[in-house]
Amino acid sequence: MQSSSMSLATTALLLALLASTVSSTVIHICNHYVDEVHLSWDVSAPEMRQPVHTVLLYDQCVDEQMLPGWSGAFFAGLVNNSHAVGGWRNFDTKVEFSINPADGVDWFDVSHIAGFSLPMIVSGGDVVAGCAVDKLINCPVGWQARPSPDGPVVQCRNDGSQAAYDFFVFKCPNTYVRFNDDAQGTKAATGSPNYLDVSIGLGSTGVAAIVPPKVDSCIACTAVPPP
């Protein structure tokens, strides 16, 4: 019995030491775009983080600490994109993460598979995903989505056509635009470990927004129904 007790105590000590060596990854998110940006989190490991809706004001930043093994994403939008409003957020710019999986690397991507709402850059060391192109500018009418009939364009939706692919990848070689784009869109962090930087909008560099080309013909466009 004494031996068993010692064994349990030793196991508990080893587990405590192991836990102390596990470091979380900080996801640092800043809004440099407009007055208000909405972040709607989603997860594939809900026991590690509950879905949450966050509002970032202009030049406001937030740090989110994620434990190794966490996989999930957030949608960034110009209007309320919380779970309460349903599927609207699915067409916002999406950022996906897989923190320290089996290979010990933080993976991330910026996805426009369903649509675009905000220009965004994610960096892990010297590796970058996303781009600073504002796709709401010159977004074809058939792909535009507005919160109300007379409201501003807040999403440019990807209808999956070749025309849409060409539009969304223009000046954006490091984004996820269609399924199985892993080689182009998915990135692995390098350099400083356990820290990912997310810049919404132009960021502190002050680089001017890049205007994508106009799509003069919308023959290939699919009209977007009201949400």
What does this molecule look like?
The chain is α+β, with helices and mostly antiparallel strands. The chain has helices at 2-21, 162-169, 182-185; strands at residues 25-32, 36-43, 53-57, 61-66, 71-77, 93-98, 107-111, 115-116, 120-124, 127-131, 144-145, 155-157, 187-188, 195-201. It has a six-stranded antiparallel sheet with strand order 3-2-5-6-7-13. A hairpin with a 2-residue loop joins strand 9 and strand 10. It is globular and about 50 Å long.
What's the quick description here?
With 227 residues, the chain is an alpha+beta fold.
What is the helix/strand order?
HEEEEEEEEEEEEHHEE
Helix content: 10-25%
The CATH superfamily appears as: Thaumatin
Silhouette: globular
Q: What is the count of structural domains?
A: 1
Top-tier CATH class: Mainly Beta
Low-confidence stretches: 10-21, 203-227
From the alpha carbons, calculate the radius of gyration and give it in angstroms: 20 Å
> Mean pLDDT across all residues, rounded?
74
Oligomer: single chain
What is the total tally of β strands? 14
Q: How would you classify the helix and strand content by structural class?
A: alpha+beta
CATH topology: Thaumatin
- Helices, by number, come to 3
